[in-house]
Design goal:
The complex is a heterodimer.
Chain A lengths: L13 H7 L16 H17 L3 E11 L4 E11 L3 E8 L7 E5 L2 E6 L4 E4 L16 H5 L4 H4 E11 L2 E10 L9 E7 L5 E7 L5 E13 L2 E11 L6 E11 L10 H4 L2
Antiparallel strand pairs in A: 1-2, 1-13, 2-3, 3-4, 4-5, 5-6, 7-8, 8-9, 9-10, 10-11, 11-12, 12-13
Chain B lengths: L1 H10 L3 H41 L2 E4 L3 H4 L9 H10 L3 E14 L2 E10 L1 H7 L6 E4 L9 E4 L1 H7 L6 E7 L5 E12 L4 H6 E5 H7 L8 E5 L6 H11 L4 E4 H4 L1 H38 L2 H9 L4 H36 L2 E2 L1 H4 L2 E3 L2 E3 L2 E2 L5 H27 L5 H10 L2 H4 L7
Parallel strand pairs in B: 3-8, 5-7
Antiparallel strand pairs in B: 1-9, 1-10, 2-3, 2-6, 2-9, 4-7, 5-8, 6-7, 11-14, 12-13
The chains are: A mainly beta, B alpha+beta.
């Protein structure tokens, strides 16, 4: 989302999703709120994060490990993204699901099922359902760029925590905001403003899920946390972990990549 | 015996009066019996719609299943349990449930998939015959799908349509397959109409990668066993599972039924009072007309008690004969309404109550209670209506002339009209 000063800014909620789905090219903006020192610094931090992940397009591979009470599975995924609202994710492994793909085009989500060779469009009623069996929801894939308008944020903590010098930003949705969370807390490293963790609270302000960022390393010339672990609060022992194996930014991707025809390749 | 003979003769001394009174009582008895049986029929039919179609009189689930409908909370040994239920002549149908997505062309919707054994479903419940289009599922798994009415509409699906199905299987994988719509259900209730996608249990097992276990056993004795006894039997047969009656499964609906019962009782009571007042009026007039007769009886030495007894007995005898006619007419009317029913479709169309579809053909339900209650009430009304004027007549009011004068000129002529001037 372009702001007054022409930059993109990320909201707290979208940070994990941005990283998770650079694949999906989600980059969100934070508007400049009333010019108070605290909010400025918050905005600067988020701008910094956003600048870090702002690629016009990306392509790469990642491994998604999902652990639930009843099963554990690992998926190999390839992804392409362009802009904020075009992305394609295809399963490479396991063999049983190879070729299954998700296409996001604008606010629409499509799934391709190679077994039956059919494309299905995801109805809006299924947005809260799990994406590919993970703890992420379909909503996480298609939303996330609207928090600039929907959240107020402030720095709620600065200093040492767990042996790390961090800055914590608390984001509260505005009263009329169409947001599922009651509050989101984003923690970044003070040294380079890379995210450490994001905590999502439900509308009763109870912690709903936590995203942890680890394994900071350089990919495609950028220092990034390459592993993200999402832990739902109400299901102890369950998690979804995404590890970026490779990523390239600013690659040239034509419209055809994000077409329904390509989805069925 | 003599009392009966005397009363009987008394009744027919004034045939016109007796005939009018009896007509009023008989007509009210007829109306009350018909009304009560229609009310009873409405409640019974509504409950039947719920229990006989799909929900059943009670259901068995694994502990905690209903709180989250988890794919993994299954009844452990369904075969043994179903066999035991069969031995007790309790109709039962095993079912599995799972959420997912149905899609046709560019249209898609969330659905609640239901795996069923078509033969058992058809034997225990009426849903298999409750189709708007097509047929129910074949006995063997053939990737057929029966959709809820509104779900089919939202997909623009009809019999023969190809449906893509996508689910999260029990092993975490993405279960997906092509199914063909074989039938579309008639109106059942909001939940089923909007979400239900039924398939053969074996197809369900394959789609959801769930080789064993079931989520629900719905039981139906078609009213043969009272709910308490049914719960007791089920608890004994399946000690490790949860037993829920339809009342507990559908608390809102159950409350609505209770409330309907109460409101119908109130309505019935109001109607009874109205009818009773009409009869009472007739009875009062009939008794007042005989004021002179009572006075004469007293003059001849009859005790007040005897007059009251005679009049009351006469009233009861009159009520007996009248209610006999009324009951016969009421039975005839209710039987017609029970077999043919009232078709309300043109008036109200399809009515849903608490998400449960109400049959447009409204049938009466004739039970002993719907006959006995109005008859006894009419008797009580008649006897009470006769008792008051009889008691008045029996009281020693100085002279029968006073009483007849009272009837002619009203109470003030008896009570006095002011002070005596000296």
């Amino acid at each position: 989302m372009t702001t007054v000063n022409g930059g993109h800014c990320n909201t707290a909620r979208t940070i994990p999703v941005v990283i998770l789905l650079l694949a999906l090219g989600i980059s969100a903006g934070l508007d400049a709120y009333p010019v108070l020192a605290e909010e400025l610094s918050a905005r600067d931090i988020l701008n910094k994060v956003d600048d870090l992940y702002r690629g016009t397009s990306s392509q790469g591979k990642m491994t998604m490990e999902v652990v639930t009470e009843h099963w554990k599975r690992t998926l190999s995924l390839e992804f392409w993204s362009r802009g904020k609202d075009r992305s394609l994710i295809r399963i490479l492994a396991p063999l049983k699901e190879k070729g299954t793909a998700t296409l996001r085009s604008g606010s629409d989500l499509w799934n391709y099922l190679p077994k039956v060779n059919r494309v299905i469009k995801l109805p809006s009623s299924m947005l809260s359902a799990s994406w590919m069996g993970s703890h992420f929801t379909n909503d996480d894939l298609v939303k996330g760029s609207r928090f600039a308008e929907d959240y107020d944020f402030r720095i709620s903590f600065q200093g040492m925590r767990d042996g790390q010098d961090v800055v914590e930003l608390t984001c509260i949705p505005k009263p009329q905001a169409p947001v599922v969370w009651g509050k989101v807390e984003v923690v970044v490293r003070r040294s380079d403003y890379l995210p450490v963790a994001t905590r999502y609270y439900d509308e009763g302000l109870r912690l709903a899920r936590t995203m942890a960022f680890t394994h900071y390393r350089e990919l495609s010339g950028r220092l990034l946390p390459t592993v993200m672990t999402l832990v739902p609060r109400d299901k102890p022992g369950e998690k979804t972990q995404i590890a970026y194996d490779e990523i390239r930014f600013d690659v040239v991707l034509s419209d055809d990549v994000f077409s329904l025809r390509n989805l069925q390749q | 015996m003599s009392l009966l003979r005397v009363s009987w003769r008394n009744l027919w001394r004034n045939r016109r009066r007796t005939a009018i009174t009896m007509s009023a009582i008989a007509l009210n008895t007829l109306i009350l019996i018909t009304t009560y049986s229609l009310m009873g029929g409405f409640l019974k039919q509504t409950v039947r719609n719920v229990t006989q179609l799909a929900t059943g009189e009670a259901q068995l689930h694994a502990p905690g299943y209903l709180s989250d409908r988890s794919l993994y909370k299954r009844i452990a040994h369904p075969r043994i349990l179903l066999q035991a239920l069969g031995e007790h002549s309790i109709g039962a149908a095993p079912r599995t449930y799972g959420y997912g997505l149905v899609s046709r062309g560019t249209k898609s919707a969330g659905a609640l998939f239901q795996g069923v054994e078509p033969a058992m479903e058809a034997a225990a419940f009426e849903l298999a015959g409750h189709l708007a289009q097509g047929t129910f599922l074949a006995p063997a798994a053939r990737k057929g799908l029966v959709l809820g009415r509104k779900l089919a509409k939202s997909l623009n699906a009809e019999v023969g349509s190809e449906i893509v199905v996508l689910v999260q299987a029990a092993d975490g994988s993405l279960g997906n397959d092509l199914f063909t719509v074989v039938g579309i259900l008639g109106a059942v209730g909001e939940a089923i109409d909007r979400n239900a996608a039924m398939m053969h249990l074996d197809d369900f097992r394959q789609l959801f990668a769930m080789p064993e276990g079931i989520h629900e056993i719905a039981v139906n004795t078609r009213g043969r066993l009272p709910l308490d006894a049914l719960v007791e039997t089920l608890s004994r047969l399946a000690p490790g599972d949860e037993v829920r009656t339809w009342r507990r499964l559908l608390p809102t609906f159950s409350d609505m039924i209770e409330l309907s019962g109460v409101s119908m009782s109130i309505f019935g009571a109001i109607f009874l009072i109205a009818a009773g007042l009409g009869v009472m009026n007739t009875m009062l007039m009939a008794t007042y007309e005989r004021a002179r007769e009572f006075a004469l009886q007293k003059a001849l030495g009859a005790t007040p008690w005897r007059i009251v007894r005679d009049v009351t007995f006469e009233a009861w005898l009159l009520a007996c004969v009248a209610t006999l006619f009324g009951t016969l007419a009421g039975l005839a009317a209710s039987t017609i309404l029970q077999t043919t029913g009232l078709n309300t479709a043109s008036l109200a169309g399809e009515t849903t109550i608490s998400g449960v579809v109400f049959d447009p053909v409204w049938r009466a339900d004739l039970t002993l209670r719907t006959v006995v209650w109005p008859v006894f009430m009419m008797w009580a009304v008649c006897v009470l209506a006769a008792l008051y004027p009889a008691a008045m007549s029996a009281r020693d009011m100085g002279s029968n002339l006073h009483f007849s004068h009272f009837l002619r000129a009203g109470p003030r002529s008896v009570c006095g009209t002011g002070r005596r001037r000296s």
